[in-house]
């Protein structure tokens, strides 16, 4: 069984793994006097069917079309999302990015956040969860030829990373020992319930007389929501 676990609601401060800085990236931005970099770690899309919904463990078990199983973990902080039930067909998109930014002197410690949203895509219920896990770190050593950096995070944990992407290598070249940086890992998962459709209000007829165009339009009653709470990157 292949398991893809996204702990989107676990926002307690944790270590930034060395591998987080070594995964391939595709983009970078920088400006004079304020160095920063951002890389795309992962962007995956999949079609899946909900196998089970565990309200106690707050987990969803999904099965992709190729038979692979995906486990989605979500915490009590995840609210205000469309409910899914076993048998629902989902279209899923998962994005993960890593950013590093030179911290400004005297700036407050970065805070981790979790945001959720819901809406509709062509009448299909859609949910989005985005987790921003942020940490501050101090640069201890830099080895430009080997693209290696060591740093200490606020929990006094030491890390050594080999930077594999040009974006992060260019960012490293702007740093010096003693610099303080803010590291942000963003994980976002969005899903569309393909088998559930909510009727949308009909647009007024542009050719109708003015009086008729101004008459209120009664929207069809929305379809009954799925009965099992939960959500799904």
Features:
233 residues; nine-stranded antiparallel β-sheet; mainly beta; elongated; 2 helices; disordered C terminus; single chain
Structure, explained:
The chain is mainly beta and 233 residues long. It has a domain at 36-193. It is built from two helices and nine strands; from the N terminus they run ββββββββαβα. Strands 1, 2, 3, 4, 5, 6, 7, 8 and 9 form a nine-stranded antiparallel sheet that branches. The model is unreliable at 1-33 and 210-233 (pLDDT under 50).
What amount of the residues lies in strands? 35-45%
Model regions low in confidence, pLDDT < 50 over at least 5 residues: 1-33, 210-233
Q: How helical, in percent, are the residues?
A: under 10%
Assembly status: single chain
One letter per element, helices H and strands E, the order comes to EEEEEEEEHEH
The Rg value, from CA coordinates, equals: 23 Å
Counting DSSP H or I runs of 4 or more residues, the number of helices is 2
Task: Quote the average pLDDT.
Answer: 77
The biggest beta sheet is recorded as: 9 strands, antiparallel
How would you describe the shape?
elongated
The secondary structure category is: mainly beta
Give the total of beta strands.
9
Brief summary of the model shown:
With 233 residues, this protein is mainly beta.
Task: Please give the structural blueprint.
Layout: E1 36-54, E2 59-64, E3 69-73, E4 89-102, E5 113-121, E6 124-143, E7 148-153, E8 158-162, H1 166-172, E9 180-193, H2 210-214
Antiparallel strand pairs: 1-2, 1-4, 2-3, 4-9, 5-6, 6-7, 6-9, 7-8
């Amino acid at each position: 069984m292949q398991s893809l676990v996204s702990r989107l609601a676990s926002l307690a401060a944790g270590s930034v793994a060395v591998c987080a800085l070594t995964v391939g990236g595709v983009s970078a931005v920088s400006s004079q006097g304020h160095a920063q970099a951002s890389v795309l770690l992962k962007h995956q899309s999949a079609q899946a069917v909900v196998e089970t919904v565990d309200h106690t463990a707050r987990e969803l078990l999904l099965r992709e079309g190729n038979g692979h199983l995906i486990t989605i973990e979500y915490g009590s902080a995840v609210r205000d999302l469309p409910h899914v039930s076993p048998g629902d067909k989902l279209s899923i998109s998962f994005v993960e990015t890593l950013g590093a930014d030179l911290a400004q002197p005297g700036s407050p410690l970065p805070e981790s956040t979790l945001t959720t949203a819901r809406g509709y895509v062509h009448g299909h219920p859609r949910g989005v969860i985005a987790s921003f896990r942020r940490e501050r770190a101090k640069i201890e050593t830099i080895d430009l030829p080997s693209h290696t950096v060591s740093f200490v995070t606020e929990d006094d944990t030491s890390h050594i990373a080999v930077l594999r992407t040009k974006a992060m290598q260019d960012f490293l070249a702007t740093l010096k020992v003693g610099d303080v940086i803010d590291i942000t890992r963003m994980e976002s998962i969005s899903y569309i319930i393909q088998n559930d459709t909510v009727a949308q209000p009909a647009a007024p007829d542009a050719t109708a007389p003015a009086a008729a165009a101004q008459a209120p339009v009664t929207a069809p009653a929305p379809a009954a929501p799925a009965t099992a709470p939960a959500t799904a990157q």
